[in-house]
Write a structure and sequence with these properties.
single chain; 128 residues; mainly beta; four-stranded antiparallel beta sheet; 6% helix
Length: 128
């Protein structure tokens, strides 16, 4: 059974840091990423990493967040620094079995598809 399980969310003050992890079991995926959804807003991409290892970042987090994956592609990590209140959201891990650049990975993950696997989400709350 394929599963994605996120961990590491929590509450932090503005300027603080959090590290999210997504554990993958049951399969190996070349395309993985983080999305987030704040109350009343649409889900948006945060960062992805594709088969070539090059990361893609949303403009709003570029320079503050770092996405990485272990060599076995079992754990996807999102290091979040300089957090701001607008980063408050439920963060989801996503995966799909396609090979390509991280930009392609983002394009595929952001579109609703039965081929995309999602985790249950982890809450991040940043207070001012």
């Amino acid at each position: 059974q394929v599963r994605l399980v996120e961990s590491g969310g929590g509450s932090v003050q503005a300027g603080g840091s959090l590290r999210l992890s997504c554990g993958v079991s049951g399969a190996i995926y070349a395309c993985m990423g983080w999305f987030r959804q704040a109350p009343g807003k649409e889900r948006e991409g945060v960062a992805t990493i594709g088969g070539y290892g090059d990361p893609w970042y949303a403009d709003s987090v570029n320079g503050r967040f770092t996405v990485s994956i272990d060599d076995a592609r079992h754990t996807l990590t999102l290091q979040m620094n300089s957090l701001m209140p607008e980063d408050t959201a439920m963060y989801f891990c996503a995966a799909r079995g396609i090979w390509g650049t991280s930009s392609l990975c983002y394009d595929r993950l952001r579109v609703s598809s039965d081929e995309t696997i999602w985790g249950q989400g982890t809450q991040v709350t940043v207070s001012s």
